[in-house]
Specification:
388 residues; Aspartate Aminotransferase, domain 1; Aspartate Aminotransferase, domain 2; seven-stranded mixed sheet; 40% helix; binds pyridoxal-5'-phosphate
């Protein structure tokens, strides 16, 4: 038999999605893969029902339906503080997952280096491998998950083609401060580097933290490829709607990559999602309040149990410190947790480049009763977990 590609030789399947399968196997409350168990906004679903009977069943324009791009441009122009051209500065993709991949393929050549902060969302490792690039990892140091500017500059001195910025960050819940972003911006300019952002949690931020769009910083528009999606903002992870926003000299190439990768995102879903893109600011305030309540409920429960954890500034993930249980493998811990305690988590090691084994990750994008059920199961975790 011929060999399969070298590119995929180091690939493992996604640990996050594997933990969902394990949770299902044991009937565990699945707090591993980050998707909501509550309904998307009713108005979007009602529009979807109408759209199925309208004329949206063939390919849309490959870089996104006109109506969708116009609604998105209007929303993002407001938020990013500059006019975004719906015709020349947006590509609609199949989720931020494709947006990131298309961005990486558009800016890197095989062998190029890409700076990735660690811990990182696991897709970035795969994105760099698939595009032939080489990651340079820069640690975000717990408990604040701040970076050392000298270490970051040392990475830039290796002349990376791009830096990947996940803000707000999965898994550590960090929201980069404006000062931190300005340090990155200065280095990107000094070393002439692209910045690819992943801002899927742009609307899930807890007071007093605020989201700063990297592309909105002085001189950064020209070199920033902003990726995001509707998955988390409108609780529609299964619709696979994302986008890239960038200046025309970049977006023209992203359009071509995207066209050959997927042709386009689902036309009826784009049309139905326009309803969400046209929501007013009250929707985003409501979303923020809803997630603040969930975060506080879950953190209070964990505090009652007495487990050390991070306090997210944005996104909806918590890292729990499991050192007290003495497991040599956090993967083993998560498998036992699903089996004996009945709660699904992701081993922290899948997010860190460093040999880190003391964290597991939960998400709380769940109905309050689901979170209460999980907390109830976790309440006697010390008794239920087998000795390592
Ligand atoms: C940081 C981050 N980026 C991207 C994604 C995937 O987004 P999408 O559903 O838009 O592909 C996730 C999903 O969990 C995520 O946490």
């Amino acid at each position: 038999m011929p060999q399969l590609s070298n590119r995929t030789a180091t690939f493992t399947d996604s640990v996050i999605r594997r933990m969902t399968r394990i949770s299902n196997k044991y009937g565990a409350v699945n707090l591993s893969q980050g998707f909501p168990d509550f309904e998307p906004p009713r108005e979007i679903l009602d529009r979807l029902a109408e759209v199925t009977r309208e004329d949206f069943h063939q390919y849309s324009i490959t870089w996104g339906a006109q109506n969708f791009r116009e609604a998105l441009a209007e929303k993002q122009s407001r938020l990013m503080g500059r006019p975004i051209d719906p015709n020349g500065e947006i590509v609609v993709t199949c989720g931020s997952t494709e947006a990131m991949m298309a961005a990486m393929m558009s800016v890197t050549n095989p062998g190029d280096k890409v700076v990735v902060f660690s811990p990182f969302y696991e897709n970035y490792g795969a994105d760099t491998i698939l595009s032939g690039a080489e990651p340079i990892y820069v640690p975000l140091n717990p408990p604040e998950f701040s970076f050392d500017a000298d270490v970051l500059e040392a990475a830039f001195k290796q002349h990376p083609k791009a830096l990947i910025l996940c803000n707000p960050s999965n898994p550590c819940g960090k929201v980069f401060t404006r000062e931190e972003l300005l340090i990155i911006a200065d280095l990107a300019k000094k070393y002439d580097t692209f910045v690819i952002t992943d801002e899927v949690y742009e609307h899930i931020i807890y007071a007093p933290y605020k989201h700063t769009y990297f592309a909105s910083l002085p001189d950064m528009w020209e070199r920033t490829i902003s990726c995001s999606s509707l998955s988390k903002t409108y609780s529609i992870t299964g619709w696979r709607l994302g986008y890239v926003i960038a200046p025309p000299h970049i977006i023209d190439t992203v359009k071509k990559v995207h066209d050959f990768l997927t042709v386009g995102a689902a036309a009826p879903l784009q049309e139905a999602a326009v309803t969400g893109l046209r929501f007013g600011d009250d929707y985003y305030k409501w979303l923020q309040d809803k997630y603040t309540e969930k975060r506080d409920l879950f953190l209070r429960g964990l505090d009652d149990i007495g487990i050390q954890h991070t306090v997210p500034q944005g996104a909806y993930y918590i890292l729990l410190d499991i050192s007290e249980f003495g497991y040599a493998s956090d993967l083993d811990f998560c498998e036992k947790l699903a089996e004996y305690v009945g709660v699904g988590a992701v081993p922290g090691s899948s997010f860190f480049k460093e040999p880190e084994n003391r964290y597991i990750r939960f998400h709380y994008a769940k109905k309050n009763e689901t979170l209460e059920n999980a907390l109830d199961r976790l309440s006697d975790i010390r008794r239920k977990m087998p000795k390592p």
